Amino acid sequence: MEPINKVKSVIAPLNRTNVDTDQIISKEFLKRIERTGFGRYLFYHWRFDAEGKEKKDFVLNDERYKEASILVAHENFGCGSSREHAPWSILDYGFKVVIAPSFADIFYNNCMKNGLLPIRLAVSEVEQLLEKGQEAAYSVEVNLEEQTVITEDGDTYAFSIDPYYKKMLLNGWDEIELTFQYEDKIRAYEEKLAHIV
């Protein structure tokens, strides 16, 4: 995984509530065995019509947001099934951060374990970001070390994160790489155990 600390970007304002994992990536695109290549299917049925043409009124098809790496949505983002393909598709599309007032628990944990930073902010703060982002291209800077979101207007919003996940994201570790940080201790334990048996 890539380490995350500071992410500065135009936000992509997805002003929708209860976005579920089937809307994030629909079930017909889950046949791949790799973790990559899912970005092209992100929000597929919202992005494209039945003929595969871009729907002009969808946020990700707006030129202002094409390079955004921060997605902002409303409450209960990532509800539905437990599929890890949802954060995979968001990451593969190019997003590094998702900001919302609340997330489904399984989705939230899947994000952390796959290198995508989910940030919970107050409803009023998210609504301000969505409003600004819909008016014009609007940038924010996320600072994971400081646990802040700083808007281009100078407003600062603080967020909380479990120290365990913060360390993993700052270092770009998944749980396997985290285990390797204790390789010396594991080896010492195994050698000690071998002498006992």
TrEMBL record:
It catalyses: (2R,3S)-3-isopropylmalate = (2S)-2-isopropylmalate. This is 3-isopropylmalate dehydratase small subunit. Heterodimer of LeuC and LeuD. PANTHER family: 3-ISOPROPYLMALATE DEHYDRATASE SMALL SUBUNIT, 3-ISOPROPYLMALATE DEHYDRATASE SMALL SUBUNIT 2-RELATED-RELATED. Residues 1-122 form the Aconitase A/isopropylmalate dehydratase small subunit swivel domain. Its EC number is 4.2.1.33. GO terms for cellular component: 3-isopropylmalate dehydratase complex. Catalyzes the isomerization between 2-isopropylmalate and 3-isopropylmalate, via the formation of 2-isopropylmaleate. InterPro entries: 3-IsopropMal_deHydase_ssu (IPR004431), Aconitase/3IPM_dehydase_swvl (IPR015928), AconitaseA/IPMdHydase_ssu_swvl (IPR000573), IPMI_Swivel (IPR033940), LeuD (IPR050075). Pathway: Amino-acid biosynthesis; L-leucine biosynthesis; L-leucine from 3-methyl-2-oxobutanoate: step 2/4. GO terms for molecular function: 3-isopropylmalate dehydratase activity. Keywords: Amino-acid biosynthesis, Branched-chain amino acid biosynthesis, Leucine biosynthesis, Lyase. Belongs to the LeuD family. LeuD type 1 subfamily. Pfam families: Aconitase_C. It comes from Sporosarcina pasteurii. GO terms for biological process: L-leucine biosynthetic process.
